[in-house]
Give the backbone structure.
Amino acid sequence: MAIFVLASICDHHKRKTGLSAFYSCRCTVEKEKRKEVIEQAKQMILPIKENHQIHHSSNRDFGWPMMDHIFTDPPWKEMYHYQWLAEMAQEKVKKGGLVAVVSVQRFLDKLFPIFKGFNYVTTLAIVYKLTGVNAAGCFVPNWRPVLLFSNGKYKQPKDLVTDTVSVMSSPKDYHDWQQPLQPFVRWIEALTQPGDLIADPFAGAGTIPLACQMTGRRCVATEINEDMVKVGRMRLAA
Ligand SMILES: C[S@@+](CC[C@H](N)C(=O)[O-])C[C@H]1O[C@@H](n2cnc3c(N)ncnc32)[C@H](O)[C@@H]1O
């Protein structure tokens, strides 16, 4: 129902039907919203928060402190980002800390060798209730893997943790490659301790820093795109 309502209000996509019309319309609506949000964020002068820092910097140039964990979402087509991440994590993540990395199904085989110096803990999954349209070969990926490694032995929590979180779809109202907030809130809360310092070197629009703030964890993050830094800081200030 919602699909057809949305399709019918968007002149631009009148000739498309069903799911493809829905996604095209949603894409247009979200693109417009993103523009507005960026303009709004640019007007604000928001200082870096003490416990939830998003720095405008290349992660390569940043002076990373020792950290309890990393939760991050690198540009998934570019393996050199994961390579850099693994090297940084080896040096900066405390023993027993987690390294949670978002990826896509077709690159998982490349990630395991990159993270060979870590213990593999498990694969978490963000599951989409709405079927995706971006097929990879004949496969339509309906879930997004988040690989969980640890630097040395990870002390597991006593409470049970569900490894999937279902969301309607990935919102794109702040960033083209935005991740949904809820899975990170759930997993950060379940797998880390209040007050822990979590790093996100690829912050985008600040979804993971926001999840840290909502769960009482500290966060230090970098993002190379200045507009996104402003959007991230605006989300933290809201
Ligand atoms: C997949 S997006 C992250 C999206 C984020 N999880 C969200 O929900 O908004 C990856 C981000 O990494 C940033 N990035 C790429 N190379 C970087 C670098 N060397 N240093 C810092 N950020 C970088 C990109 O600008 C992009 O915003």
Remarks:
- Residues 2-42 form one domain.
- The chain has two domains: 2-42, 48-237.
